[in-house]
Design goal:
164 residues; alpha+beta; Nucleoside Triphosphate Pyrophosphohydrolase; 7-stranded mixed β-sheet; two-stranded antiparallel sheet; globular; binds 8-OXO-2'-deoxyguanosine-5'-triphosphate; 8ODP; NUDIX_hydrolase-like_dom_sf; hydrolase; metal ion binding
């Protein structure tokens, strides 16, 4: 399956990739939710697991037989203690050699219900949208988070080299 949102001649991709692209692999599905209110954005400091010690939206793996939207709502509740009407903002594909590809559906919310609460996994914190801590986030977030903030739909792919 070609990466969603990437139109055009995908013959190379369907053939398994070549040249500078890593070959295709099994895909794992994730979600990520950003709550934006006026000039503030809610991020979570990841306390354990993938992306530890980085700020990110709230999210995780989509479980079998669960829709992406249901997974996003579940993770937002588990990790930040809140519920929110979600709008799909964009889709990203992250590729690391030797690992399953990560397909991430990103959602935006402009209101929420409940009380923002720290969880075992995330410590929530509000930031000014003009002062987002990109140096403490995943490297490529700086490219697409501005699109989420300006409500422009996006799709993209990032190829990482293995750390070290
Ligand atoms: N912003 C951003 N988020 C990313 C990147 N790569 C990546 O996996 N993520 C997100 C997707 C998920 O929201 C989160 C990783 O999910 P997770 O491993 O914590 O999943 P989980 O909560 O189901 O984990 P667990 O309960 O099994 O520990 O990190 C990236 O490059 N940028």
């Amino acid at each position: 399956m070609p990466p969603p949102g990437l139109a055009g001649n995908l013959k190379e991709f369907e053939a398994g990739g070549s040249g500078d692209w890593f070959p295709s692999a099994e895909i794992r599905y994730y979600t990520n939710v950003f709550v934006v209110q006026d000039d503030k954005i809610l991020l979570g400091y990841k306390k354990r697991g993938l992306g530890i010690h980085k700020y990110n939206g709230f999210g995780g793996k989509v479980e079998p037989n669960e829709s992406t939207l249901d997974a996003a709502l579940r993770e937002l509740k588990e990790e930040a203690g809140i519920t929110a009407p979600l709008t799909h903002a964009g889709t990203l594909l992250f590729v690391v050699p030797g690992e399953k590809w990560a397909h991430i559906d990103i959602f935006r919310a402009e209101e929420y219900t409940g009380v923002v609460t720290e969880s075992d996994e995330m410590r929530p914190k509000w930031f000014d949208t003009t002062d987002i801590p990109f140096d403490q986030m995943w490297d490529e977030d700086r490219y697409w988070l501005p699109l989420l903030l300006s409500k422009q739909s996006f799709s993209g792919r990032a190829d990482f080299e293995r750390e070290g």
